[in-house]
Design a protein that fits this description.
The protein is an alpha+beta fold. It has one domain. It contains two helices and two strands, in the order H-E-E-H.
């Protein structure tokens, strides 16, 4: 099985809901992760995909 297929299967139950605010902000809530490690890996993947730099930080922006 390819690496991309394994990634897709691990996150097949993850769903999201998004909210916007008056100040043009966007909040996206993802849920359905199997483990805390999966949540962090998904976060790193997401920030890389949108080219959001988090250099100088030990990890991507925190999850709340």
């Amino acid at each position: 099985m390819s690496k991309d297929k394994k990634f897709t299967n691990r996150f097949k139950d993850v769903t999201a809901i998004s909210f916007t605010s008056k100040d043009e902000g966007l909040l996206i809530n993802f849920h359905g992760f199997i483990s805390e490690e999966d949540k962090h890996e998904f976060t790193e993947y997401l920030f890389r995909k949108i080219n959001m730099s988090y250099h100088g930080m030990e990890h991507p922006p925190t999850l709340h």
